[in-house]
Write a structure and sequence with these properties.
Elements (H helix, E strand, L loop, with lengths): L8 H16 L8 H10 L31 H16 L4 H12 L11 H10 L24 H6 L5 H12 L6 H18 L4 H7 L5 H11 L7 H8 L5 H14 L3 H11 L3 H18 L7 H6 L3 H10 L1
Length: 320
């Protein structure tokens, strides 16, 4: 059995998000659960080398040909960026974060890899401007999962009221996703994670946060939370497995409700297919924080070792 490392619940939420994203990268945007199940039998599910052959003749989008096992998706890079931002500044500073975001993903930046639509549209707004002219809302009208990439870090490092947390979440989300559905999904997600960090059981946290979900997402979540047992493939077929929060949040809620530990949650997410990295950020945060609070096995030590940016992430966490 793999050994596990003990972390504080808040650090576990951050590291759980980053490691879950990295674990899912090898099969990210493979939309064929049958192919994923076949691959599980031969090469496993987590920390796989991205290989275009795994996507041959099935529905999928191979986006990570320039990455290796243990790398992060663009979502994971955003999560790491906000971690290092808060570690460096002690709090969230909008203009500095927008400058760092542009510096990472823009021309000449250190990020190499696929850039999704909300990130690309945000860059188009920021690149022509000097930081003093950056708008308070720089995001695209887009409900994809970039909206949730900052939620674990913002929530885990917040020390004020929930109203203040949700206000901060909206401010940060609208820097990349100026979309009401994206904001509602992020507020729901932050409320769930905040409740878990306060010691509430996951099932209670998922329910208590429903008033923040918005009129579109709330009925979908109510349905997802009525499922009786873990079956991420069937739930993803019901709600969708693409990059949109209205599809992915019910899948996350279902897995978080039924998974017995961090590793099972991450693997169930990958088995569902589609935008597994997009879902992994929030799911990994919830599952890892809850496991720590319940004194259960959380992030496997071998998984932490396979995450290529562990020294950067652990350095950021140590400075918080």
């Amino acid at each position: 059995m793999d050994s596990n490392i003990r972390l504080t619940p808040r650090i576990a939420a951050i590291m759980g998000a980053l490691v879950a994203d990295s674990a899912a990268l090898g099969l990210h945007w493979l939309y064929d659960p049958a192919r994923i199940a076949e691959l599980e039998k031969t090469i496993g599910l987590t920390f796989l080398e991205p290989d275009v052959e795994n996507y041959a003749d099935v529905k999928g989008f191979f986006a990570h040909g320039n990455k290796v096992a243990g790398d992060s998706s663009g979502y994971g890079e955003i999560c790491l960026l906000i971690l290092n931002h808060i570690a460096a500044h002690g709090e969230f500073k909008r203009v500095a974060y927008q400058t760092e975001f542009r510096g990472l993903f823009g021309p000449g930046g250190t990020y190499t890899g696929y850039i999704d639509s909300p990130t690309r549209q945000t860059l188009l707004k920021l690149i022509p401007l000097v930081p003093e002219d950056f708008p308070e809302v720089s995001g695209a009208d887009d409900d994809q999962f970039a909206a949730l990439a900052t939620v674990p870090v913002i929530t885990a490092t917040h020390s004020g009221s929930q109203d203040d947390l949700l206000e901060k979440i909206e401010t940060v989300v609208r820097l990349t996703n100026n979309n009401d559905d994206a904001v509602a999904a992020a507020k729901y997600s932050a409320s769930v994670l905040s409740a878990v960090l306060e010691g509430k059981p996951v099932n209670e946290a998922l329910t208590l946060a429903l008033p923040h979900a918005g009129e579109k997402l709330k009925p979908l979540l109510n349905e997802a939370l009525c499922t009786e047992s873990l079956n991420s493939i069937e739930v993803a077929e019901r709600f969708g497995s693409a990059c949109h929060v209205l599809e992915g949040i019910p899948v996350i809620a279902h897995i978080a409700l039924h998974a017995t530990g961090y590793q099972q949650a991450v693997e169930a997410n990958i088995l569902a297919g589609g935008d597994s990295c997009g879902r992994a950020i929030l799911l990994g945060a919830i599952a890892a924080a809850h496991a720590e609070l319940q004194n259960k096995a959380t992030i496997p030590l071998s998984w932490l070792a396979k995450y290529n940016k562990l020294p950067i992430a652990s350095g950021g966490c140590s400075r918080l």
